[in-house]
Amino acid sequence: MIHEAYRIYQDEVKDEMSQIALFARSMWMPEKGLSPYRLVADNGAWVSCEPAKGPQATDLQVLDGIVVPGLVDLHTHIGEGSNPFAIGTDVLLSTGVTTGCSQGDVGHENIDSWIWQTRPDAPHARGLLAINLAPFGEKAGMSGLELVNSSTVQQTVKAAERHSDVVRMVSVNLSERSLGRAKAGTMFQYALELRKRLSLPLMIGLAPEKILPLRTQLDGLIHGDIVTYCYRSTPWTLFPEGRPIDGVVEARDRGVLFDVGHGKSSFDRQIAKVSIAAGFLPDTISSDMQAATTLPNKTINLVTVMQLVSECGAPLKRVLEASTITPARVLGLTDGTGHTMVGARADLSFLDISVPQWIGRPIIANGIPTASKSHHRLIALEQS
Fold first, then answer.
1. pTM
2. What is the dihedral sign for C-alpha 154, 332, 140, 116?
3. How sure is the predictor about 124, in pLDDT bands with cuts at 50, 70 and 90?
């Protein structure tokens, strides 16, 4: 189990972005793999990242596990208090996620309050948003899309442009619960128009085949759009009998991405195993973490989903890319998120994949250490 070496602390470095040097015995770098590295951050960004044989006297040290760029959860639900699904970004951070994108939790009517509720969790974990076509977002027990009309797209464009630093995607969930009496085809076309107006990627939860043909939905997506719940079971499954339905391969060839989005019940292990064995790996891995998946007996977070995808046959390299650099690119983050190159935002996470249930913890978020310190020397993990 994890010792106190990784508890989040709020005292001596709370708002400080002084220079930090860290040695990692096993650091994963995109395109380079695992090696010992020494990293130096100053004012929230990496100023040095070099191979090293060992630490210097004052370095923070991570001697066990794997150190990775800060994890990025592309599909989660944050903004505690904004709706029944949402959790705080501090909950994400505690699992090693340093950037999370809230999928469809708010629309143009309540985005301002969401911004206000989410920002106090900074500077440690960063909360971004995929704005929903539905004016108030996706609400438990409500058919939010019933409120959409011909003026909704324009109102949503204005709201998204007002908060363009935070709004990074467009979101629509065409489930029967979200649709209510709204027509799936009409809502789909509104979502495509919104995506076009904002020039942002669309993440879609597909409607069941009986409501709107899956092929029709896939054919409407373009390069950069994302299909979440990609390993879902019937009636949404994209891989009946282990083979992709018509339109899946063509969509991927156009640059449409496929995301896991585990959630409460949107991941079918057998479908994932067969699909991955056939070469259809996810482009991004996300948790769909929400209040209902943080219960003691049903905890689902990004690291547990990464482990599931690995156990279904995905190589570790792909699992790490799909949880760091690829979702950062989807979100259009130009600050180096998902990487540790010089100039990149200084985010680091720790993974222990040697235990039966993988463990993730934050190390540095936005240049601020998130683990306990003793005289500026971090002792990594101890097992007990």
1. 0.90
2. negative
3. low
